[in-house]
Amino acid sequence: MNYEFSGELWYWRGPAPFYFVTVPADECSQLKAVSAEVTYGWGMIPATIRIGTTEWTTSLFPKDGRYLVPVKDRVRRAEDLEDGDSVTVRLAVGL
């Protein structure tokens, strides 16, 4: 399953600070429908992500009925991204 969407990069100041992009509601519904087939536990969904020319593998985090795409520091540096920037995310989840 492949998705492409735009969203805002935002910063979470938790115990392990990180940046995320929230997956839109429509895509979250589709991901939730297949999550049992692809999750490795806790609702986490492994995915390959691309922002700009940078690609990496990660896992989508379930939160409040949605999924979050974690954006690594090396991706933010490579793509010159800051908190609040709008980004286009290409997301691939294998079935």
Structure overview:
This protein is α+β, with helices and mostly antiparallel strands. It has a single domain, classed as Elongation Factor Tu (Ef-tu), domain 3. The protein has helices at 25-38, 73-79; strands spanning 2-12, 18-22, 45-51, 54-63, 66-71, 86-92. Strands 1-2-5-4-3-6 form a six-stranded antiparallel beta barrel. Strand 1 and strand 2 form a beta hairpin. The protein is globular and about 35 Å long. The protein starts with a strand and ends with a strand. The relative contact order is 0.33.
Would you kindly provide a brief summary of this structure?
With 95 residues, the protein is of the alpha+beta class. It has a single domain (2-92), classed as Elongation Factor Tu (Ef-tu), domain 3 (Beta Barrel), CATH 2.40.30.100. It has two helices and six strands.
List key phrases describing it:
6 strands, 95 residues, six-stranded antiparallel barrel, single chain, alpha+beta, 2 helices, Elongation Factor Tu (Ef-tu), domain 3
Instruction: Summarize the helix and strand pattern as letters.
Output: EEHEEEHE
Spatial sequence of strands, sheet with the most strands: 1-2-5-4-3-6
The rough form would be described as globular
Residue share in β-strands? over 45%
Spatial gap, N to C terminus: 7 Å
Largest sheet: 6 strands, antiparallel, barrel
Tell me the number of helical segments per DSSP (H or I, 4 or more residues long). Answer: 2
CATH level-four homologous superfamily name: AF2212/PG0164-like
CATH class: Mainly Beta
Low-pLDDT residue intervals, each spanning 5 or more residues: none
Number of strand elements: 6
Percentage of residues in helical conformation: 10-25%
CATH topology annotation: Elongation Factor Tu (Ef-tu), domain 3
What's the alpha carbon Rg, rounded to whole Å?
13 Å
